[in-house]
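Researcher: Structure prediction, please.
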Amino acid sequence: MSLAIFDLDNTLIADDSDFLWGQFLVDRGIVDKDYYEEANAKFYQDYQQGKLDIIEFLDFSLKPLAMHDAQQLYLWRDEFVETVIKPITLAAAHKLVEQHRAAGDTLLVVTATNRFVTEPIVKLYGIDNLLATTPEFINGQYTGNFIGTPCFQEGKVKQLQDWLAGSTESLAGSCFYSDSHNDLPLLKLVDKPIAVDPDQQLRLVAEQAGWPIISLR
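Model: Predicted structure follows.
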């Protein structure tokens, strides 16, 4: 029984939920189309290139949460999960999660995408443990700020270490599945790093290091 850690976007699901949530807001007319669509695409490109300013991105991506009533946000999120996310969940990913569950492993998702977006997605896989960037929520309203450490690059390692310190789990025998070179700090920390449909940079590192490379597509 070990710790099985999963990235979410482009690993357990076949696209990026953060980017798709932004596009959903554009498509529903909830945010300004021209500004938001262009900025959302630019931030995603920065992420893919490994040069995302996470603080700048969070200021952008969390701002719509502060502009609407929480109950309305939850209704939109339900629609988003049903219409956008469920079609891009992966049968092979479900099977992989269940294999680890059957082996008695502790299941954990560690994702840069904020908890508001990802919590219901992770539940689709029956995973209870989630580390994600946490939007600030005060007096029943999202503020547009975040609390704690952004769960991105080295921030994923920091969040995981904090979580381990408060649990009985350890990294002995641990594995981590990810598609992104942005996750190299955490991939290098676990005992068994596994590249899943990796981007070009991660594929090169995985090939050189002899890490398993798999596809869930």
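Model: The two ends are 26 Å apart (CA to CA).
Researcher: Thanks, that helps.
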